[in-house]
Design a protein that fits this description.
- Helix 2 links the parallel strand 3 and strand 4.
- The protein is built from 9 helices and 8 strands.
- The protein has an 8-stranded mixed sheet, sandwiched between helices.
- The chain has about 260 residues and is α/β, with parallel strands linked by helices.
- The N and C termini lie far apart (about 65 Å).
- It is globular.
Amino acid sequence: MRLLLRPIVLLALFFGIYFTLERLVVYPLDPRAISPSNTRISETKLDGMVIWTALPKRGKPTILYIHGNAGHIAKRTARFQRLMDRGYGLVAPSLRGGNGSKGWPTEKAITNDIRNLYRALTAGQLTGAPTVPIIYGESIGAAVAISLSASYMIDHGTPRPRAIVLEAPFTSLKDVATHMHPQLPLATGLMLSRWPSLQRIPQIKSPLLILHGTKDDLIPISMGRALLAAAGSAQKELYAVQGAGHINMWTGDAQRRLYRFLSQF
């Protein structure tokens, strides 16, 4: 029995360490609870998830902004301010494990969190009035946005988003890992978080804009182009942000293209 238990314990330790490492690599979220510095932004909570909100100006839509996995949502404040300056409303959740949001981040848990948030938003429970948003997904937030927006991820009777913007999206998390570490096929095969966006994006029907940097070394623009080709949207476009990498996407040209897209809705 003792000989049998030893390999079981070693395997349990291996997988425990591996999956903890995956969490740290895939979801390196800043857990500090930081309140919004912009007085136009309010903070609320939904089932332990911290959400920043701002009401739109009359006749303007609300943007559901799903952030990426780097840093803190407070680092997106300048982006939020630019959107609010143009009259857009804001709903910006902090993914679990970041900015005081409760819970351990996994693909399933994050998917459920954002689905619950979308239901609450479209039912009027979050902002006081039923709201069908434009979804903006950034990096891994783009994978969350695709998962949410795919028809099989939206409950019957729940309206589709008005439009979708994806910033530096990937085809799958495994593809990113393989791109970054082709010498570790076993490790990439064991990943719990898959985010298979290329499989899901044909279900998307809302108008779609993809922003992708031509110099993105983490998520190559070829992944953005593959997602564009597979998307089920009748209106879809990829805007290649010349010279941009993964984290410097909001150039003047990119913002102008973004605002032209948003102005249709």
